[in-house]
Amino acid sequence: MLRFLTGLVFLISIFLFFSVYISPEFFPYAGLLTLLIPPLLVINAILLVLLILAGRKLALVPLIAIIIGWKFIGITFQLNSIPEKTEGLSVLSYNVHLLNYTKDGQDRKTVTQNITKWLQDNPSDIKCFQEFYQDYTTPSRNAIKALATDQGYEYSYQVIDGNIKKRSYGMAIFSRYPIINEGRVFDTRKNNGVIFADIKVDKDTIRIYNAHLESMSIPSEGLSDLDGIKENYRETLRKLKNGQVVRASQLGVLMEHMRNSPYANILVGDFNDVPYSYTYFSLRKIMNNAFEKAGRGFGFTYNKVLFFLRIDNIFYDDILEIKSFKTHREVDYSDHYPISATFSWEKPLRKVQIQDAD
User: Fold this and answer.
1) Which residues form the Endonuclease/exonuclease/phosphatase domain (predicted)?
2) Co-location of 336 and 187 in the same domain
3) At what angle do helices 2-19 and 37-53 cross, to 10 degrees?
4) Which of 169, 167, 148, 150 is nearest to 158 (CA)?
5) What is the pLDDT along the chain (358 residues), one digit of tens a residue?
6) Do 133 and 174 belong to one domain?
């Protein structure tokens, strides 16, 4: 029985370890199955200990599975040292939830004031926002004035919906350095999309991509108890499956755009996908992940019931060197936590050709 169980766990583990390279466009449920990778690693570890204590050579089987799946441990948890002081180009990414996220008992106006004050005090050279809300009709809600022009930042604001001269929401990139080019890769006319800005840093130019991929559509409020889980799980699975397929399609458009970029790329944003996903591993093939290289702990970025999700990321090209990374879990003004990283590079900065990830 133990031999059968060990073999079965091994086969399932190997299949799941390699399923992250299968596009959900071809196998829609691949992205859902990969969510089982963390518990499978734990099961393999338990089997390894039990078989070693029993003196069984069969212990080699879970050991091999753990070795093959070791990369998943690194993308889940890190123990990088925290530098005392960092210098370089600092980049912040934050899904600000329209700048008015509230929890029970919180006053919406106070929350907006708090997040605005924190963002004004944050010293990052480049600030990227998803679900950014702009209101030109109400001085207290004029976020571009408060966070960009009054703070000495240039900005690129791409509207997804609303009246550009009155009230709207979309995605924004703020920069202390000159923005010499800007545009959008795509948008869904809902609340998702990818924009970019070419930023002149001294004599070099860096392209910043700000991404907000298709939502996971998880009704977290309905999953707060057992009855909610029973009631919502079928609909949740359907939405998760559909989201995986749409993100795979969006990812193809984004990666093609990055391949044609004339500059070194930094990609930030809310990817709405966990690290055990086709989205994450496709990007990981061609770029480095800031959390993996300089993060510490689990790096969870979701500020709701499903707190164990890391769906916000910063990716960067090889030619750049990361100095620091931080998840600002003390900042709970949105349903996401902000993340930031600092980069340096040898000058002059030269573009490294992105290879096809296929």
Assistant:
1) 92-336
2) yes
3) 150
4) 169
5) 889 999 999 999 999 999 999 999 888 877 788 889 999 999 999 999 999 999 999 999 999 999 999 999 999 999 999 887 789 999 999 999 999 887 766 777 888 899 999 999 999 999 999 999 999 999 989 999 999 999 999 999 999 999 989 999 999 999 999 999 999 999 877 779 999 999 999 999 999 999 999 987 665 555 554 455 556 667 777 778 888 899 999 999 999 999 999 999 999 999 999 999 999 999 999 999 999 999 999 999 999 888 899 999 999 999 999 999 999 999 999 999 999 999 999 877 876 555 555 4
6) yes
**Residue 121 tokens, joined:** 């005090």
Task: List the structure tokens of 154.
Answer: 């240039």
Q: Last residue of some domain: 21, 44, 76?
A: 76
Strand bridging mode 264-270 / 204-212: parallel
Looking at the fold, whether 63 and 125 belong to one and the same domain comes out as: no
| Alpha carbon distance 111, 103 (integer Å) | 10
Structural domain tally of the chain?
2
Would you say residue 16 lies in a domain? yes
Q: Which residues contact 116 (CB under 8 A, 6 or more apart)?
A: 99, 143, 146, 147
This model's pTM is above 0.85: yes
Q: Which two tokens stand for residue 221?
A: 């409020």
Query: Domain span at residue 310?
Result: 89-344
Last residue of a domain, one of 76, 103, 138: 76
Asked whether residue 7 falls in the same domain as residue 94, the answer is no
Amino acid at 212: H
